[in-house]
Design brief:
Length: 169
């Protein structure tokens, strides 16, 4: 079974240092990724033609990361029936409050799944995309279950190690 792709779109190359975390997690799950710098405000025509052609190229989910008056995820959602995850980024004077409100406050009928501001949100965007794609891809769903198990094991280890230190302190 050919695995479908995730398209990561960022509003500027200045967003990449944070959004690279998203890319790395998707690649750890062996999800094919397309990355594009395209802006809702600066390159609206190129953005629209990239998004409209994506389903045919095998894209299943979009992740759009942007800062400031972040119209990008909403503009992507306006042009596609595929799910869109929006990552608010902390750039400019308002440090992400502006982009969070821009991305989360979509009007009814055009959903964007908004995650946390910054790198935590970039990581969760990748994981949410894996969960969405896992619905039609049992191998990917199994990899996500393994990820959750390892995460829980690592918390158990930390719990035991802290409790042991306190017991001997
Ligand atoms: C947004 O404006 C971008 O997503 C970026 O977060 C912010 C600043 O862009 P640059 O001026 O660094 O290109 O559209």
């Amino acid at each position: 079974m050919t695995r479908r792709k995730v398209a990561i779109i960022i509003g500027s190359d200045s967003d990449w240092p944070v959004m690279e975390a998203c890319y790395k997690i998707l690649r750890q799950f062996d999800v094919p990724v397309e990355v594009q710098v395209l802006s809702a405000h600066r390159t609206p025509d190129k953005l629209s033609s990239f998004v409209r052609g994506a389903e045919e190229r095998g894209v299943a989910v979009f992740i759009a990361g942007a800062g400031m008056a972040a119209a990008l995820p909403g503009a992507v959602a306006a042009c596609t029936p595929l799910p869109v995850i929006g990552v608010p980024l902390a750039s400019g004077a308002l440090q992400g409050v502006d982009s969070l409100l821009s991305i989360v406050q979509m009007p009814p009928g055009v959903p964007v799944a908004t995650v946390a501001v910054g790198e935590g949100g970039a990581c969760n965007a990748a994981l949410l995309a894996v969960q969405i794609m896992g619905i039609g891809d049992p191998a990917l769903a199994e990899e996500f279950k393994n990820y959750k198990r390892k995460q829980a094991d690592s918390v158990d280890d930390k719990n035991q190690s802290l409790r042991a230190r306190l017991a001997h302190g």
